[in-house]
Structure prediction request, 304 residues.
Amino acid sequence: MLKRALLGATLALATLTACGNDAPSNTEKVDVVAGFYPLQFVTERVGGPHVAVTNLVQPGAEPHDLELKPSQIAQVSSADLIVYLKTFQPELDKAIDQNAAGKAFDVTTVSPLIKGEAHHHEGDEEPASEEGALDPHLWLDPTRLATVSDGIAAKLSTADPAHAAEYTANAATLRAELSKLDEEFTAGLKTCERREIVTSHEAFGYLADRYNLEQIGLTGLTPEEEPTPQRLAEVAAEAKEHAATTIFFETLVSPRVAETLAKEVGAKTAVLDPLEGLEAGSTEDYFSVMRANLKALREALGCS
Prediction:
């Protein structure tokens, strides 16, 4: 009887202990929802094995056009952390405001956005690009992405204090890799015959600012915009003036307009990837795409 009573007391104590421990076990992962690819990439690198990251945008899809399914809204609501860029994906902004405001990390709070350019044409009532619109493409400056990684490390450390030291260390490692990439761009674009890049849309403002380039865009910050005839004429004239050899288009939108312009000015076309997402089946990552961008820029600009 005494052994049976002791066994019962031990089981009861174990049950009470289990019920009273609400902290997540060490085997559980932090459930993170990322708005689009660059944020997924950084979160996975910083979080390592302790996070499970869901990218809301399917491979090959344009992240600006995100329309959330009910199941995705449920994912946002139940996530431990949402990493997003405010105003870039209005549907996600709305879902966060309604379901997850206290669990979201807007990366622009640690790396504020800069304004894009606005193009005015004689006789137009409105500029082709909205005056003062903020450029969301901050991840194309590796130093800014490093700042974002530090911010994500801080948020993950709050959500999962047991692994805070690992998150901080992972962010430091990523920062070092991004610093090396920054050095490669700085050296690779230091001495070039031209410094003007002609692009299908103005996604490369941060990259141009960082590496002393001039961006000449057919359209503004939204890739779906169609350039006006006036803008096409302006860009054609600038491309000829600067002896541009290459008109850049991007991976997730049609190259039709870039090809038309290239034919008009006697240039070729090439990909300059804004890295908003990867194509379906791609084995690339942020670093390999950025280095491919550097190679394309060096060839187009005649860099030594």
Remarks:
- The chain has a mean pLDDT of 87.
- The radius of gyration is 24 Å.
- The chain is about 45% helix and 15% strand.
